[in-house]
Amino acid sequence: MIGEIDDAMKRLVREAPGIGKDIEVVLDAPTKDWAARRNAPTVDLFLYDIREDVKRRETGFLEERNEQGIVIARTPAPRYFKLSYLVTAWTQRPDDEHRLLDALMRCFLKYDAVPEPLVVDTLAETGLPAWLSIALPPPEDRAFADVWSSLGGELKPSLDVVITAPITTGVVYQVGPPVKEGVRGEFSGMGTGTGFGGDEQRTGRRPATAATTPPGAKGE
User: What angle do CA 90, 96, 98 make, to 5 degrees?
Assistant: First the structure.
């Protein structure tokens, strides 16, 4: 999924109006040493953070059906992850960098999600969009100055582009065959006596017994 998003980001930049074909598009960390080696106009798409978007987490399962519409498997709902890119422009003059940043901002503002032709391979497994946002305020637990400090470089203008992409968990629960008949039951009596659990209980009536004459009665 990450590789497909990297490729989509690079392609969006390379095909954007106002960005020359001679400009390099890379995924490098913009460290101080890296910046010192730059000798050509460059757009850097540095992936600096990956975290789950817990607000989008769902419970329950998705059903997979066959051609007859019968459920054959269930999978957990996909999880969403936010991939944050630090987008910077590198040229010899600040004016050129600002113009390049303007072209980059206009490029990403066109889209609310990664364009469908770029949604391929594992990024397309869920059939759901990968949302795109640009230049939103950073989370409370992170500042862009901290990102630059950790890289050991000097703070410079940048764009924060975040792709929120769904990803499957890879867990599949197979289901049993469909039920084709109703419930059937067979019962048999226990014991042969007339007490509890015998024929009297099974048939609901007392079995016949030999007739007797009370003592002292006269037979007729």
Answer: 85
Residue 56's SS3 state is helix
Per-residue tokens: 145 = 């100055």
Q: How far apart are CA 126 and CA 120, in angstroms?
A: 11
Long-range contacts of 133-139 (CB under 8 A, 24+ apart): 133/161, 133/162, 133/164, 134/105, 134/108, 134/109, 134/159, 134/160, 134/161, 134/162, 135/105, 135/159, 135/160, 135/161, 136/160, 136/162
**Residue 124 contacts residue 48 (beta carbons within 8 Å):** no
Q: How does pLDDT run across 165-213, given as a tens digit for each residue?
A: 998 876 565 676 666 777 777 777 665 555 555 544 444 445 555 444 4
Q: How far apart are CA 171 and CA 80, in angstroms?
A: 15
Q: Is the pTM of this model over 0.70?
A: yes
Domain layout of the chain by residue ranges: 2-174
| 216: alpha, beta or left? (left if phi > 0; alpha if psi -120 to 50) | left
Cβ atoms within 10 Å of 123's Cβ, excluding its own: 22
